[in-house]
Design brief:
Layout: E1 20-26, H1 30-46, E2 51-57, H2 63-71, E3 78-86, H3 92-111, E4 115-122, H4 125-157
Parallel strand pairs: 1-2, 1-3, 3-4
Helix pairs in contact: 1-4, 2-3
Length: 158
Amino acid sequence: MGRYEKIHELESELNGAELNIGIVMSRYNIDVSKGLLDSCTAELEKNGVLNIVMITVPGALEIPLALQKMALTDQFDALVALGAVVRGDTYHFEVVSTESAGGITAVQLDTGIPVANGILTTNTNDQALERMSQKGAEAARVAIEMVHILRKLDEEIQ
């Protein structure tokens, strides 16, 4: 192990008071998407977030463009992507999963606005239904935490 002059760990912070959070939800696999949304918004509210804007889009491939449009408004501290891609009998699952994830990553890297990826990719609808509550809440916590991490990094770097 090397020698370090300074090791500084940024502590996790989940205080969402005064944060503006945007959510983009896919209407495809709507039962799972609504479950993700319910758990996400409940977790955001539990952590003090009162300003939430939610829009829906047809499917997971449309999520990145809506996220980008929201990020470019400079009205949001963080964004959350919610949806479900369930494996079918064709290669389409891989295309949608890969392209939506890549688009979400591109939005946050291009804009500097954190985006929590709450899109489930599962083999079955039952798996998606089992994971939706946990994944929605996790996405909410990631969005809040990343805002604080980026703010602390801005303070540390200057």
